[in-house]
Amino acid sequence: MFRKAQIKDLDKLVYIAESTIQVMQDHQLYQWGPDYPKRPHFLRDIEAGFGYVLEENTEVVGYLALTEDEPTYTVIDWKHDAGLVVHRLMVDPAIRLKGIGQALMHHAILEAKSRGFEAVWVDTHPGNLPMQRLLRRMQFKERGFIDAIYRIAYERSTLLNPPQKILIFGNSGVGKTTLTRKLSEKLNIPYLHIDSIYWQKNWQSTPQDIFYTKLKAFIDSHTNFVMDGNYLNSKILDLRLEHADTLIYLDYPTQMALNGIKQREKVYAGRWRTDMAEGCIEKIDQEFLSYVFNFNKTRKPNDLIHSSKA
Predict the structure, then answer these.
(1) Reduced to 3 states, what is the DSSP secondary structure of residue 274?
(2) Are residues 151 and 225 in the same domain?
(3) Cys-Cys crosslink for 29: which of 24, 131, 151, 175, Cβ 3.0 to 4.6 Å?
(4) Interstrand relation of 204-205 and 246-250 (parallel, antiparallel or unpaired)
């Protein structure tokens, strides 16, 4: 959950800043030092309404400040006339590599768009390779170098909005799991195979109330995600549609699905797949084949949309 930073957050922000500086120095990166950012910087952000925190389970895990001007940026030939400026972006080093930095930047893009800005502007140290990779992944473009502060300037149009909450549907065997993993890696967001929380050991199904609770807990604890699985005839569908911003329906011929299942059985014959519960041995029976054969007759995209309104 994003919210405006408050005075009560100061101790945690100082802790995250000091921890971040230590990690930077451990990697011979001196973008920040002992004098920046400090408590007075965060206090000014809070008093001016510039600071935003990201909370997970009531704990502050990330921070950024958003300002509407930056004097040193006048030397850059920006593609847009005005941009919302990102400063002091930081993630608690104890929980890095979980997509929090990307969630912070996505919030900056949405905030800029809501205020009528056509772009987000940000700068970073030439040695901060992780930040540069994040910016490129989020479609920021390098616009020049700011000698006065020894920083590379980046810009990103608010007209571009990569999906952040993706649902993937389709018949068995058409590649939902593969696509989920590839999108997760490309967009740097967590993924969930819904089968993995529905099926228990030895193909025992999870009661609907528990299934719903598990899925809701995952959605509530992640600011972005990609998940695959159908489950169209239950409130599980409404829960996902309520939170998703992108739906992908893999609409392939039935024969392609059957071919995919046969290939999957060859790979996992007598074993359980890593995207399923332990003990769920890969198998093909008549009931499963019937489901696959009839899928395209009963679960086309228009049915998906209508079922969400039932």
Answers:
(1) coil
(2) no
(3) 24
(4) unpaired
Residue 17 in contact with residue 37, Cβ under 8 Å? yes
Each residue's pLDDT tens digit, 186-244: 777 899 999 999 988 888 899 999 999 999 999 999 988 999 999 887 789 999 999 99
What residue numbers bound the domain in which 299 lies? 165-307
Q: What residue type is assigned to position 270 of the chain?
A: G
The stretch 53-60 carries a mean pLDDT of 93
User: CB neighbours of 226 closer than 8 A, spacing ≥ 6?
Assistant: 166, 167, 168, 180, 183, 184, 187, 189, 190, 191, 192
Report the CATH number that the domain containing residue 229 is assigned in CATH: 3.40.50.300
Helices 100-114, 129-137: axis angle to 10 degrees equals 50
Rounded (10°) angle between helices 235-243 and 208-220: 10
Please name the residues in contact with 63: beta carbons below 8 A apart, sequence gap of 6 or more: 5, 9, 13, 16, 42, 51, 52, 53, 54, 88, 89, 90, 104
Handedness of CA 159, 162, 164, 169 (dihedral sign): positive
Cβ–Cβ under 8 Å, residues 176 and 170: yes
Nearest to 232 by CA among 306, 287, 296: 306
**127 lies in the same domain as 188:** no
Query: Same structural domain for residues 148 and 286?
Result: no
DSSP E strand stretches across 43-124: 51-56, 59-67, 84-91, 119-124
What does the pLDDT look like over 109-167, one tens digit per residue?
A: 999 999 999 999 999 999 999 999 999 988 899 999 999 999 999 999 987 666 889 99
